[in-house]
Design a protein that fits this description.
The protein has about 140 residues and is mostly helical. About 50% of the residues lie in helices and about 0% in strands. It is elongated. The chain starts with 6 loop residues before the first helix and ends in a 9-residue tail after the last helix.
Length: about 140
């Protein structure tokens, strides 16, 4: 049974959605509801057989989109990052450009950088409780 949407229906649903609209906003929402509900109904009407593979690539670009010319590689290196700090905390808070330059120059290895961050996670993880680590519940 199709019941046309009106501003009163939108007002009745506001508390469930946790929003509060003005009268003008309610009228706007009501005016577009039929169109919005038609979209999933149109998708449901498309027959997709079980032999059709699922989408494995998501590309949100419009067909007319053309990627601007750019170099083949991007380099995120500071021109002069300065010397590698002795203090691990200073390294941990360095910019990506600085870290990239230190790695490129050989001042620091990727293994050392990875171990530095893993140590910080082991030390600060239980205190900050911002992530789950092995064994956390």
């Amino acid at each position: 049974m199709d019941i046309p949407f009106d501003a009163a229906m939108v007002a009745a649903a506001e508390s469930m959605a946790g929003v509060a609209y003005t009268d003008a906003e309610r009228a706007l929402v009501a005016a577009m509801m039929d169109e919005q509900l038609a979209l999933p109904n149109a998708l449901r009407a498309v027959e997709i057989g079980n032999d059709v593979p699922m989408a494995s690539v998501f590309d949100p670009r419009l067909p007319s989109f053309v990627m601007p010319d750019q170099p083949d590689t991007q380099v995120f290196r500071a021109v002069n990052p300065g010397p590698l700090p002795d203090n691990d905390i200073d390294i941990a808070f360095a910019s990506v450009a600085q870290l990239s330059a230190w790695l490129a120059s050989g001042s620091m290895t990727s293994v050392r950088l990875t171990e530095l961050y893993l140590d910080r996670i082991r030390t600060l993880g239980p205190v900050l409780r911002a992530m789950l680590c092995n064994g956390d519940a």
